[in-house]
Write a structure and sequence with these properties.
Fibronectin type-III domain-containing protein; about 120 residues; 4-stranded antiparallel beta sheet
Amino acid sequence: WNLYALAQKIAASGFNMFVKLKLLASVAAKTWGALTDCLIASITSSGCEVTINAPSDLTGILYIGTSKTSMLTQFVGTYLDPGYTFTVINLVADTRYYFYIENTLADEVARTGIYSFKTAAA
């Protein structure tokens, strides 16, 4: 969440940004879904696998990029209780990537903070 706050270019902590998003969901009468226990595994020079727990199939999408302010590439997760698995491919070797996960249902809101990892050298 701290990376997310820094990316917004305002004086706020990660906690402040989390609370802001949760309050906006409440004002819009949307349910806040918890996304927990994010795990980045099997990092290679061209990809990785990301898993995260979700309370239900929230139609999750992983957004990824090489800048914490520009994560435009999308990967749709495969849901298998208790969460999602994202297979991230076509990355550049020896490069730092930033990502977050968000749901896309109209009546629910769920989002992670920003995570990062570096791909292996070729």
